[in-house]
Structures are given as structure tokens and as C-alpha cells.
Amino acid sequence: MVCSIIQKSQLEGARRLDAEYYQPEYLKVRRLLENALKLIDVSKKITDFGAYSQTNFVEYSDSGVRFLRNQDVGDFFLEDSDCIFIPEDTYKRLTLKLEEYDIVTPRVGTLGNAAVVFKNQLPATANQNLAQIKPDQKKINPLYLAVFLSSRFGRLQFDWLATGNVQPWLNLSQIVSIKVYVPNFEIQERVADLAIRSLDFYEESKSLYSQAENLLLEELGLKDFEADEDLCSIVNFSDVKSAHRMDAEYFQSEWGRIKGKISKAKIEKLGNLVSLQKGFEPGSEAYQEGGKLFIRVSSISKHEVLDKDQKYIGEKLYKELKKDYEPKSGEILLTKDATPGVAYVVKEPLEGIISGGVLRLRAKETTNTEYVALCINSIAGQAQVQRDAGGSIIAHWKTQRIKEMLIPIFPKSTQEKIAELVKKSHEARKKSRELLEEAK
Q1: 87-144 pLDDT per residue, tens
Q2: Rounded to whole angstroms, how far apart are CA atoms 200 and 194?
Q3: In terms of domains, do 384 and 256 share one?
Q4: Cα dist. 204→82, 209, 423, 429 in Å?
């Protein structure tokens, strides 16, 4: 049992009496930072985008000005795997705009990430769930500040101050009171330098993965493929009967055009290349604060198993389930529910089990799993996922349909060339994480 014993005088003026507020790890950080400056003391301004009563006229567009949301704020970096944009004229009407070296951090949901905005990411703005911090560069290095806020000393303060029963949130008065350790500028520069080197490897990782994607698309003849803007498709009744589906989504013309392209290569069904093993659902009552990983759909990206909002199970349950549900190096983890069609090749041993919304794909014979995963994540794979996944509220991709996914098979040398670029991308991403942890 974890407990804290505190004096009545320490009850924050009786504003908070809940046990969570006085957890030992929070109290320890507060003692360590007792004499540190407040975030507002090293900032020119801290605000949010609450002026987005203006959001009632914000419409997203395919290009234009970057519009940031919670999920776009990574650990020091801005994520760009699922960017959205607003038109230039809409941006001009907004009062709050991001500038170089601003720091953005979520106020709602998953708290604790803080990302620096760099010049090449502008112009940009954000929604009302993000706070905008303008560091005073005469007092603190913005890159150092972002690293500090993303470190355990910053994250624990975000967690400690958060309120809300269902979804944690912070108001600005809480954010401005976060304590920041400010060492001399020499130390700040050393931390910032590690963070910049981390960013360089992160950008290299993205470039290598993009090269792999482009090489695959060139081989498929899909390099400059654009989605069909036609809003209707004409199909034969025999197609409806054989598909056992008659919804419009299933018969969108996009997959037909893509299939015509990839059919020029040798085609194999996914089920002939890999074996599939579904995960296990122990129930939320089995979740713990620590222990072994419980790898859910939200934990998986095409680049890594994320540590965001991670759940854990106990040692005893883990030992009972690991034989059938623990992923091994070289296997593909594939999501089938909620956000179906995300494929990731396990790079190193993971001590944990996969949830029921995740599949383990084990290669048969000489199947190159990095190549297969990239095919699934490509537009050719995703068009099939969008066609096959059903469910009116939560998307669900049936295992039988997954087995029938079509994978183009190129010569072994081509597959290896593509796979090598993906591997180099993951190596650069790993180096980026290591440098960022060193900075912290």
C-alpha cells in the first residue's frame, strides 16, 4: 500500500483533500523544486486558444495553414503523421498565431507532452485544447524548457495539478504555477544541443521511411496516385452477392483503380504469407499502475509501440498469458479494431501481451515482414482496410477479411531494398529517442 502522511497545514488551504494530490512521488518533486521559479516567471506570455469560439467557422482543408491538436504534440517534437490544415483566409481572421520557439502543451486528455514550434513549421495555429507558452529567451532556452516540461519533473507536475474525473484537464492558472529548474546557460545549451541532435535523427528517420514508401509506390505505379473525386460507383449485382455487402463505402471506385495498378505485379493473399493470432482481453479490472505491458490498439503506430497512456497487468496474469499473447521480435502487430490497419514490426523483445483488438502476424517461410508491414500501411493496403472494415460506431476489421488482403510481391532484391530503408528509419528513430532521454 502506498500512503503519504502530511500536516494539516500542508493541505493547500483545504482546496484539495483527495489522496491523489498527495502521492509520495508528487510530494518528492515538489520538495525538490520548492525554490525553483514558476513557469510564468520564465515566460513572456502563457495563454490558450480559448478565443476559438471562432472555431465555429473553422473548416479543414487539404492544404494551407497547419492546425494543431492534442495528438499533434509529441515528446519535444510536433508529430506530422496525421496533419490537418485550415485555409489561409481563415487563419488571417484568428487572433492567436504560433511563432518560432513557442512551446505548445495539451490542457486536456493526455497531459505532459511539450513540443517546440520551429520556423519551418510555420505558419501554424492550434485549437482550444492547447496552451501556448512564449519563453523569455533572456531567462531560459526554449529548447531546454521543452525538454524539462517533457521530463518526469514536468510530467509529474502536470499529473499532480490535473483535475477532472473522466478526462484530466488543466486551466491556465495551474499551468503558470508549474515549477521550472533553471540552471546556468551552459547547462541549458548542453541539454538543448542533445535535443537538436535528437530532432536531426528524427527528421532523418522520417526521410528514410518516406524513401521506402516512395520506392514501393513507384514499383506499384502509384507514385502520383490521386483519390477519385467521383461520388458514385456503378457495380454489377453479382459483385454485391459475392461480397455479401451492399453499402456504398465498400464499392468506392478508389480501390478498383488501385487494384488495377497493383495487379500488374504478382499478388498474394496476406493469409498465405503469415499466420494470425488474436490478442486477449483480461478486462479493465486487471489494469495496474505498473507491471507488464498491455499493448492496446492505441499503443501501436507504424513506427513503434507508444508509451502514451500505457496500461499494465500484473506479473501473475502475464505469466499465464505470455505463451500465446506475447509478441516476438520480427512479428507484425496489426490493429483490427477502432483504428484498423496499423502495422508495426516488433524490433526487440517486449514483456507484455496484446489486447483483443490487435493481431500477431508470424511470417511463413521467407516472407519479409518489414516489406509486408509497409504494404499494409501504404495507400494500397489502407484502401483495402477502408473497404473491408465495418461497424457504425467502432470500426472492426474481421480476421477473415484480413487474411484476404492482397499483397503485391516483387523480386526479393526489391523487397530487401525497401525493407532496408525501413530498418534504417527505425534505427534513426531509436537514436533520436536515446538522445532525448539523455537530454532529460
Answers
A1: 998 888 887 899 999 999 999 888 889 999 999 999 999 988 999 999 999 999 999 9
A2: 10
A3: yes
A4: 18, 9, 12, 8
